[in-house]
């Protein structure tokens, strides 16, 4: 169970870091730049803990898939970026893929 908490922490850390990257304006603003660096260090640390029990392909697929969707939501809410119907459909397919992996995969470290 803790491997899923570690994966969740990795995803949230990566989303925070990527969101701060937009706010850093090309690493010209100090505080958001520090958040980027610390966020990615934290994300990779927790991802490395996850990989002790979950296969790398499964963990990375979930990490990347959920990260894509969460970053799009943050971009929409925080930065006012628009999502069109094809983008939302594509993200729905990504989420469906994460669900399929978690429900049906026998290699997911359950």
UniProtKB/TrEMBL annotation:
Coiled coil: none annotated. The chain crosses the membrane at residues 27-47, 59-79, 85-104. Signal peptide: none annotated. It is a multi-pass membrane protein. Keywords: Cell membrane, Membrane, Transmembrane, Transmembrane helix, Transport. It is found in: Cell membrane. Pfam families: Multi_Drug_Res (PF00893). Belongs to the drug/metabolite transporter (DMT) superfamily. Small multidrug resistance (SMR) (TC 2.A.7.1) family. This is DMT family transporter.
